[in-house]
Amino acid sequence: MYPESLKNLQNIGIKLNNEFFTLEKFEAPLLKGINVLLQSIDLKGLTLTKNGFLPTKVVKSIVKVAATISDQRFLSVQSRFYEEENLSANMARVVAESLKLIKVQKGKLLLTKKGNEFLSLTPHEQYIILFNIMLGMNIGYFDRHQEAMCVHNSSLIMLQLLRDKERDFRTAEVYTALLLDMYPIIEDSIDDLEVLNYGEKDKLDIFTFIAETRLLERLFLPLGLIEMQTAKYPQKDTFAKSALLDNFISEKHAINKNLVLSKKLLKTFQDEIGQNKLDINLFEVTMYLFAQYAHIPLPPKSSVVDALMQKHPVLGTLRVSYTELYEKLIDSVLTTYEEFTQLDTVGARRDNLVDEYMNMIDSLFALANTPKPFNTLQKLHILPAFIFDILKLRHNLDQFTQDFILECSKVFGEEFAMDIAQLMLLLDKLEKDAKKLKKSKPNFEQGVKEFIQTYLMIVLELRSREL
What we know:
The chain is mainly α. The protein is 59% helix and 4% strand. It has three domains: 1-137, no CATH class; 138-252, no CATH class; 257-466, no CATH class.
């Protein structure tokens, strides 16, 4: 369980702090509750109530160690300990069942082989397993609010934001405002929220309300990653990162602007290709890499380099030159993705970002453009295939089906499907223009820029959805 969980966290881009593994002690209420539950099950099993719930004695033991400050406010007026009335106990059981640490058999709760294995692990290993499963859990099960994928998909970004801010108790409104200021792309999905009976008319208020319950109180607090200060009405509860969060996840550093694709960087790559006499189409390879890294988990760099190297049956220092350049290109594409999806939390600035993006488009256009429209078109022809391959591999969407665009709209929405259609329409128009023109003209060149920009919009959308 532990190696798989650790690998998954690494694959989705979570950078763990080595200091975490040296902590002598850390507080994680949910982990404590799960351990109390598992330790309460002997070889004969734990007899459940006639309705299938945990016995009150066990519930009380779990609540004693697992109730967060958010839950404790209700304990002062509570004298009975039923699983169905105590969230911390119910959460401990549901998560343990999701991890397949326990099972129900003939009215008893039994430890599984995985459950015994879990008990033998160190607290740090247990926590990694718990954190990994909680990222995939439907936390909405514990709050009964609407689905709100815009909240669910913000969990890791919000956590990194908390990690990288100085320790200060802030309200949920402040944190969501910071989140949307740094990552405005999230705001696009808030419109999908339903007003229902929340009392607030503003969907941003609904987003904040659900985020406070689902992320802060039901995810980060039970994991011990934040601390909470309760307030009396009309003041609001406030939250701040815990010492555990500082030690668990590393700070996400500002983007290395030197690696973002630009005219200067592309010229550096071109010069290296020329100096080492490498047979590399820089435009084609760069666009190929954008498609390859449009999804998470990211493919291993070595496997992508190996695929590219199949074109070059060379050995020795020449092979090293090819490999090193491809690795630099991959780092550049990944950094460019990070820049234009605004996933960095330290030093993230949207000032001049549009200008920076359009300059990149111009730089890629310069790589693709030739005096003869036909030759330019040959460089563009392969680009849709890169996207279609990814859609086929990841989403089973086949470009050759009659309803391809319709199927795309079902999976990604109408706007994304229209971008795919626009890409093909632009290519078709460029093909017709290339047949008429003997040399490049401004209108044709503008069409090429629009084609490149549409391609990048598609891969950036794919990448953003994954995050």
